[in-house]
Amino acid sequence: MTDFSTLQAQLGALTWPLLICAFLALMICLERSALFLQQSFASMSPKKQAWVKALRQSDAKASSETIQALIESTSRQQDLLTRGANILLKQADKPKQLREELLSLWLNKQQRDLQAGLKLLQVIGIISPLLGLLGTVLGLIEMFAQLGQSQGPVTPSQLSAGLGLAMNTTAAGLIIAVPTITAAHLFGIWAHSQCVKVSHVLNQLNLWLSGVEHIALEQNHYQAFADVNRAKPASNTQLESQP
C-alpha cells in the first residue's frame, strides 16, 4: 500500500489509466513472446521440415503412395508449416485452384492469429504518451493554481508539486509507449516473415502436387521440389515416411 500511495502521489489522477495501459501491454507482450519462443524451439527441432528436405532431395512424383507417406509424416508435428502442408496434402485430389483458395484462407487465419493483440499494443503505444501529456497539463494547472493563491514571493516548494506531477506522468507515458510500440512492430515483422516463408513452401508443394517441376522466370528457374538441374537416377527414389 505504501508503494502504491507513493506512486499515486507522483502520478495523480492518471495513476490508474497508466497502470491499466502498462498491465495490458505487459500481458500481450508475454503472450506473444511465449508464442515466439514456441515457434522458435519448434524450428530448431531436428525433425523440423525434414519432410521438405527429403522431398527436395528425391525424385518422387506426386503419386498416391508418396502423398500418403507425406500425410503420415506431417501429421506428427504441430509447427506452422507442417500443419499447412498436412491440410494441403489431404486435398491433393482437388483441383489446383481450389487448393490455392484453401491455402489462402488458411494463411489469412494464421496471419490473424500471429498478429493477435498487436493492434491493441499499437493503440496503447499511442495512448500512453498522450496520457503523459495530459498529466503534464494537469501538473501545470496545479502549479499555476498554487501560484495564484500565493500572496508572497514564489518559492521552489510551490513549484515542485505541479512540476513533479507534470514530469512524472510524461516519463511514465513514454516508458510505457516506447517498449510497447517497439514490441508491436517487432512481433508484426516476425508474423509477416513467418507467413511469407510458409506461403513460399506451400506454394511449391501445391505446384508439386500439380506435377510442375519448375517454372522459368526471366533467366532463372523457380525450383519446386524436384531438382531438374541434376542428373536423374535410373530409378526414382522412394520417399520414406519420416519418423
Automatic annotation (TrEMBL):
InterPro entries attached to this UniProt entry: ExbB/TolQ_transport, MotA_ExbB_proton_chnl
Residue intervals of the MotA/TolQ/ExbB proton channel domain: 80-193
Membrane topology classification: Multi-pass membrane protein
Keyword annotations from UniProtKB, A to Z: Cell membrane, Membrane, Protein transport, Transmembrane, Transmembrane helix, Transport
Segments passing through the bilayer: 12-30, 120-145, 165-190
Main location: membrane
A Pfam family per the record: MotA_ExbB
UniProt subcellular location: Cell membrane; Membrane
Protein family membership: Belongs to the exbB/tolQ family.
Protein name, entry field: MotA/TolQ/ExbB proton channel
Organism this protein belongs to: Shewanella decolorationis S12
Source lineage: Bacteria, Pseudomonadati, Pseudomonadota, Gammaproteobacteria, Alteromonadales
